[in-house]
Amino acid sequence: MLHFSDLQGSLPGLWEGMKVTLQMLIMAVLGGMILGTLLALARLSHNKVLAALGGAYVTYFRSIPLLMVISWFYFAVPLIIGWVTGTNRPIGAFTSCLVAFTMFEAAYYAEIVRAGIQAISRGQMNAAYALGMTYGQTMRLVVLPQAFRKMTPLLLQQSIILFQDTSLVYAVGVLDFFNVAYSKGNITGELQQYILLAGAVYFVISFSASRLVKHLQKRMTV
Amino acid sequence: MFKLVPAALALAALCSMSLAHAEELTGTLKKVKESGEIVVGVRDSSIPFAYYDNQQKPVGYAMDLAAKIVDNVKKTLNMPNLNVRYNLVTSQTRIPLVTNGTVDFECGSTTNNVERQKQVAFSVGMFEIGTRILVSKKSGIKDFSDLAGKNVVTTAGTTSERLLKAMNVDKKMNMNIISAKDHGESFLMLESGRAVAFMMDDALLAGEMAKAKSPSDWTIVGKPQSYEIYGCSMRREDPQFKKVVDDALKATYKSGEVNKMYTKWFQQPIPPKGLNLNFPMSDELKQLIANPTDKSAEQM
Amino acid sequence: MHYHWDWGVFFKPTGVGSEIYLNWFVSGLMMTLGVALSAWVIALVLGTVLGVMRSLPGKIASRIAGAYVDLFRNVPLLVQLFVWYYVIPDWLPDNLSNWLKQDISPVTNAFITVTVCLGLFTAARVCEQVRTGIQALPKGQSNAGLALGLPLAQVYRHVLLPQAFRIIIPPLTSEFLNIIKNSSVASLVALPELLAQTKQLVDFTANQFEAYTVGTLIYFAVNMLLMFFMRWVEKRLRVPGLIALGGK
Lengths: 222, 300, 248
Description:
Chain B: It comes from Silvimonas terrae. Chain B: Belongs to the bacterial solute-binding protein 3 family. The structure holds three protein chains of three kinds. By secondary structure, chain B is of the alpha/beta class. Chain B has helices at 4-23, 27-35, 61-77, 94-99, 114-117, 159-170, 183-191, 202-209, 239-254, 257-266, 283-290; strands at residues 37-42, 45-46, 50-52, 58-59, 83-88, 105-106, 121-122, 127-136, 151-155, 176-180, 197-201, 218-221, 227-230, 233-234, 269-270, 275-276. Chain C is built from ten helices and no strands.
């Protein structure tokens, strides 16, 4: 069943694909966490408008399929850009997927960060205020460092899900690991083998990563 | 005197227009000049027109022609170091991606037809095919009429899909038409027995056949349901860029270089499996190369 | 840029019978809901069985369920779908394989494949929720049941599961909404669900912006409606004295 006529020849391409996958993952995780933290702060803010906007953003992105978000960014956004700026500057499949992942995942990271912040006792914030700290200082120096420590495992778990979800870029033709595997299988007429190979690679990576996270979780329990 | 003013204005306008035409870049060329980059839409599995080789480089007959086009763009803009980026497209995404500006032009296996001309512009033709069916030699299927009541696969978003759907209704053939995502998937449907026939452009069928576990089990049959001309697609109403594209292709035809390209991809072993498609040049294609046109086959 | 904005495109005839393009969205949505509901039945049944297995005292049952969860949670859904679609049918006995490939229509084939794939994928998640729900109950409950002389099966059926399910309604709701969203991958194996119909609309009309935007809004609206409905259900079924312990 798992006979490859020329796996050796496909390896460079598969490796290129894996690099694209990892690049996408790392950039989207960083971007998503930053945007997610800002969204969480907005949702917890005393400013009602800001809180409502943050809430609407999170609800919106949690209600639509990631595949739809990716497609919308790839096909519809260039038209908005063209309409506004009057040019035809392409943003490219990679960038448009990256933006889609960042904005989509931010909604999920935001909920994790929000829960993390809410878990920090109110007394700590009051104590910080009593010491004369501003809101920004309280968040930066007191609340967020503890919150992040508590929610690291959850953030990592979400990032593992994102690692798997990056395979959806197949739909818009980014040559990530899965799409390269698919296209190699397609050209050599060995699609089944390459699909199973891709599945095995994703499994090994995600499985080891989630085991590591579990281990970390045990060690980090405060 | 008063009458002269509008006339003078009109003359001035005329002059500036022709000046603009001679000097100022517009549309795609302007964009390419400003961004220092041209984006070429490529297919990943349209053997032997455009697909990826083991080095993950797009190769094929259409890619060789695309390279000629890029060369001419470099020459026209005087930008020898112009950056070339490849962007993967599928038969469903190629037209939206050209119109929304993600790719500047696409060369693969795109049929030039009147309907698509409303959305994109086409270069002069670069290939001509007939739409036929690929079947197993054992199936005994000889023509389209043998397909009644059977599962037939074709690739979504292609002309064959529309022809097949129309034939099904017009001749009450009661076929189950499967629209697969790309040619590779279509062929897999055929090879795995989900369908008994695969309708597509004959040259592409030859390419798919070459991927089979045993290519000699398969054969291309049936009276062509249409003849179609492939062209490179680009944004409409961009005469400056279209001229650069067309000139590049015409020069390649005129110098005879196109024959070498044809032999290389259709009559010699090609990657990745080193198979020879044995697909000699048709009279229709010879005709097209001798008299290049950007009309579709139905307009001829 | 030569893009022709046309928000009226959805009311134009498709050229097939008397349909307008809006009909494609409607039929796509029906297909999405059909696949999601069928898969949900599989996910709930299998997920419950697996969840119970994980909470059992015996090691073997728990390990089997654990391995299932690991496998189905660590392979991307898209890859799982392609395995079900391209690989598994060839492993089936010939007559079943031929039935799947030839006797039934391609849409039915895709429907079955996607339903099984989504059902088994979501079962792994439901399993974890059920386990959490059971473990959230005080240990005394099962002990009390056993002390009353109930066999273990009846303790689960009459004591543990009814309570566990009421506790985990919120996470289960979000899993159901996930199934609806996840079913969009079916567009990649030619099942005419909502996203596939949106793509086809783009293919026919070239109005990509309008089509993708309206498609997105339909998903959004359906999700919101279901969410409000489930909130209402949750309130009515809440176990007095127990707050939602099974959260994500």
